[in-house]
Design goal:
Elements: H1 29-38, H2 44-53, H3 57-68, H4 73-83, H5 88-103, H6 109-122, H7 128-140, H8 143-156, H9 161-172, H10 185-196, H11 206-221, H12 237-252, H13 261-275, H14 278-288, H15 294-297, H16 304-316
Helix pairs in contact: 1-2, 3-5, 4-5, 5-6, 5-7, 6-7, 7-8, 7-9, 8-9, 9-10, 9-11, 10-11, 11-12, 11-13, 12-13, 13-14, 14-16
Length: 319
């Protein structure tokens, strides 16, 4: 019998907030270098980076959002747009920076929507302005609005990684009082997305993401224990099938170049910890390296970085 998973860090502040600065750039070293200059107002390297990224839509969305989250991003993007009024890259970066500001209460949702619409007009094939609107709808919109925006992203890039994660999180929040419903719509959505994606797509991990997102909702609703040992959420037949399928896929996955692969590995490592399979979790932690993500380590309501360190230390046998 596998040993029980470790407690995922002591609870400090409900809601899973952390003083640790999780880096949205993950392991994109080129982005990290360019971002350092962008934060100082030197946007020409950011321009070159986005031009070079081209129509690699997952990578473009990842880089634009990471740049948008830097301090004063909206101001520097406006400077860029003043210098190049027809730049779709500048408009898209300004749109996503305005979305980030709106999500932090520093700008209005309406201003963010309008900025995204302007960017979409300049780059009709780019899903990134629509991703910005979906990020906004994740907090301020209805499910119908989120669904339409998700479809707008998929028209432009059917396997958009970040958009699928956002939609999964949104759907998981439906019917929080229904408990461990194996027929919940978020599971159907994740299974459908994984099945229709190409064989090498990281959307194969989406059923694990759905399971974690639903756990977050049930813990917040008080209908599920925040201790994975006491919770039945990670030990049922369906959970075991989902975890095994995703882990087996990862073992055979030959691509390490997806810009958000560390996000998937964090979800998979978290699942293996909650399932009580430390050896499998250890292999994932070795691949994650220092690139922890707040989600899903915050989903029990505990400090996410402490939870990550506790789980990693237990799996790897290190302090």
């Amino acid at each position: 019998m596998s040993p029980p998973p470790p407690p995922l860090g002591r609870s400090r502040r409900r809601g899973g907030r952390s003083g640790h600065p999780f880096d949205p750039a993950l392991d994109d070293t080129e982005l990290i270098e360019v971002r350092g200059q962008f934060t100082q107002g030197r946007w020409t390297r950011a321009r070159s980076l986005l031009v070079a990224t081209g129509s690699d839509w997952d990578r473009r969305g990842h880089r634009v959002v990471a740049l948008a989250e830097t301090p004063s991003a909206a101001g520097w993007a406006r400077d860029w747009l003043l210098a190049e009024p027809d730049s779709a890259d500048a408009a898209t970066l300004l749109a996503c920076a305005t979305v980030v500001r709106a999500l932090h209460g520093k700008d209005t949702p309406q201003a963010a929507r309008e900025a995204c619409v302007r960017a979409a007009r300049l780059a009709p094939d780019d899903p990134t302005p629509w991703l910005g609107q979906l990020m906004l709808a994740r907090t301020y919109g209805t499910q119908e609005e989120a669904g339409k925006l998700f479809d707008a992203v998929r028209i432009r890039h059917p396997d958009h990684h970040h958009a699928h994660h956002l939609m999964t999180a949104r759907l998981a929040e439906n019917h929080p009082d229904s408990g461990q419903d194996p027929l919940h719509e978020v599971y159907d959505f994740a299974a459908w997305a994984a099945e229709q994606a190409p064989a090498d797509s990281p959307l194969a991990v989406l059923p694990v993401v759905a399971h974690a997102e639903r756990y977050r909702v049930l813990v917040a609703a008080g209908s599920e224990s925040d201790d994975p040992v006491r919770s039945g959420h990670w030990s049922g037949r369906r959970a075991r099938q989902v975890m095994k399928a995703a882990f087996d896929w990862w073992l055979e996955w030959e691509r390490e170049d997806h810009p958000r692969n560390r996000a998937d590995l964090n979800f998979l490592a978290h699942a293996k910890v909650c399932e009580g399979r430390p050896a499998e979790a250890a292999a994932l932690f070795l691949r994650i390296g220092p690139h922890a993500t707040a989600a899903p380590w915050s989903y029990s309501g505990r400090d996410p970085y402490r939870a990550f360190l506790t789980a990693r230390g237990s799996a790897l046998g290190t302090p």
